[in-house]
Specification:
Layout lengths: L2 E7 L2 E6 L2 E6 L3 H13 L2 E5 L8 H12 L2 E4 L4 H20 L10 H20 L6 E5 L6 H7 L5 E5 L7 H4 L5 H8 L4 E4 L2 H14 L4 E3 L4 E6 L2 E7 L6 H8 L2 H13 L4 E8 L6 H14 L7 E8 L6 H21 L7 E5 L4 H10 L2 E4 L8 H9 L6 E5 L5 H4 L4 E3 L4 H13 L2 H17 L2 H13 L18
């Protein structure tokens, strides 16, 4: 069965070169997850290319497809559609609402109208580039109406959907003006997947309130919902990384040399690493406040611990993100001005894209990874750090509001990112932790992430999609059922 992946963006980056374009592999968790799968088994990826006026783009995509091992199909979007559907509905409504930040939502009716228009365009592209024998795997919150639009257009496709971000509880979701339409659209998929059992529970509760005629049955990782005379499946499938790829890269000579340079530059002091995309959900200001509290409460940690905060530029054309960047830079400056001494700076702030090798070098060197989002669907940085910690002596300090906490809670140091004193205490504990405990914790983290890697994620989702009976599904295939 041919696999067709559908997402808002194609897994490539286009760079203008004269009158033409260069096609480069893209970055991000979704691409990391699915590109190797399509490359190894063949398939199609449908999405927006990222540029406007795409008359000549498909030719370049076809050339890239032959090298990549799977087909890329561009969905053309106008500037107005990108503004209202992507910047508007996706990032000013769904993203903040699903991250418990409803006070900054902009419930503009025109945004939803554009979102529906674009979902219909994607449905038309799906119909054009697939047949009834294909399996269509739709990714994330931008395209929650894809299956509903296909049905409205008269196309019969088997469709699965995976939500990469959290799904909110009813008291937050019910604030969405189009709440019933979203729920009904998601119920048109054959399989709806979430990151954690908590997200699935929130979805089931919202369905119960908005479509009480829907019945759920079964237990375990995948359950059955009966809606308007048809059955669909609802499950949770924690996304992961290619553990072996990161581990092998961390062991290369190039990365080892870069790691040595970083280690030497910091005069063999202990490094705390934060690596995040610029976003208000990542808790970067709270993290900087925690560092300030650490140096106040534990002055003996001064000149011993430094934070390297990597911030990857994102949505720089959005005013709120520019303001967030300025706030972070101001806070870093204040902490450094308060505590710096000759030869030591508390916080090293890097606002740029790092190469994969550079990032992995920092993963190798860091004694502590500080991963403290206010809310996150999963957070792959936590898993990447553990995979690259080949010394086995690192400590993961992890937000209890990250989806990864459900899997890693036993061996990471869990913190509430809003509790800056608690985060400071966890950092102090991590610094003082004896080497045997560090190695035992990191060993367990690495074993779990290696077992439940990206290939397990894909296999478990597709198995839930294709197995005829739920009894055929291996209920024991996942053993972390935390409600966090």
């Amino acid at each position: 069965m041919r696999l067709v992946v559908v997402s808002n963006r194609l897994p490539i980056a286009l760079k203008k070169k004269g009158e033409s374009y260069e096609v480069h592999p893209g970055k991000g968790g979704l691409i990391t997850a699915l590109a190797p799968v399509l490359r190894d088994r063949g398939g199609d990826w449908i999405g927006w290319s990222g540029v406007h006026g795409e008359d000549d783009v498909q030719t370049h995509l076809d050339d890239y497809s032959r090298k990549a091992g799977y087909n890329l199909h561009a969905v053309p979007l106008s500037r107005e559609q990108v503004q209202d559907y992507y910047q508007g509905f996706s990032n000013e409504v769904i993203w903040p609402l699903f991250h418990d930040l409803q006070t900054i939502c902009n419930f503009k009716p025109a945004f939803f109208a554009s979102y529906m228009e674009v979902n219909h365009k994607f449905a038309s592209a799906i119909a054009e580039h697939s047949d009834s024998e294909a399996y269509v795997w739709v990714q994330d919150y931008h395209l929650m109406h894809a299956a509903w639009c296909l049905k409205q257009q008269g196309h019969d496709r088997r469709c699965g959907f995976f939500l990469h971000i959290p799904f909110p509880p009813p008291d937050i979701f019910l604030k969405l003006p189009w709440r019933t339409k979203i729920i009904e659209a998601l119920l048109e998929f054959d399989l709806v997947g979430f990151q954690t059992v908590r997200d699935r529970r929130n979805f089931v509760q919202c369905v119960g309130l908005l479509r009480p005629d829907t019945q759920f049955s079964g237990r375990g990782q995948v359950v059955t919902a009966t809606y308007e005379g048809r059955e669909l499946r609802v499950g949770y499938f924690p996304i992961s990384i290619d553990f072996k790829e990161f581990q092998n890269l961390a062991r290369t000579r190039k990365v080892a040399e870069q790691a040595h340079q970083v280690h030497t530059a910091f005069r063999r002091r202990h490094l705390i690493l934060g690596a995040d995309r610029l976003d208000y959900s990542k808790g970067i200001p709270e993290r900087i406040q925690a560092m300030r509290f650490l140096y106040f409460k534990y002055p003996q940690m001064r000149e011993k611990l430094s934070l390297v905060q990597i911030v990857v530029p994102s949505r720089e054309d959005v005013l709120g993100y520019r303001d967030k960047k300025l706030k972070i830079e101001s806070m870093v400056s204040e902490v450094n001005g308060e505590f710096s001494v000759p030869g030591w700076v508390p916080i090293h702030y890097l606002y740029r894209n790092l190469s994969r090798e550079e990032l992995v070098a920092y993963y190798r060197v860091a004694s502590i990874a500080l991963v403290t989002p206010l809310k996150d669907g999963m957070n792959l940085v936590a898993k990447e750090y553990c995979a690259c910690n080949v010394s086995g002596q690192g400590v993961l300090v992890l937000s209890e509001f990250a989806g990864a906490a459900a899997q890693l809670q036993r061996w990471a140091l869990l913190v509430n990112p809003h509790d800056v004193e608690g985060v400071a205490d966890a950092l102090y504990r991590a610094y003082l932790m004896d080497i045997d405990e560090k190695q035992a914790r990191m060993h367990k983290l690495r074993v779990s992430i290696r077992k439940y890697d990206i290939y397990w994620w894909v296999e478990s989702f597709l198995q839930a999609a294709f197995d005829r009976q739920l009894g055929d599904f291996r209920q024991e295939s996942v053993d972390f059922h935390s409600e966090r």
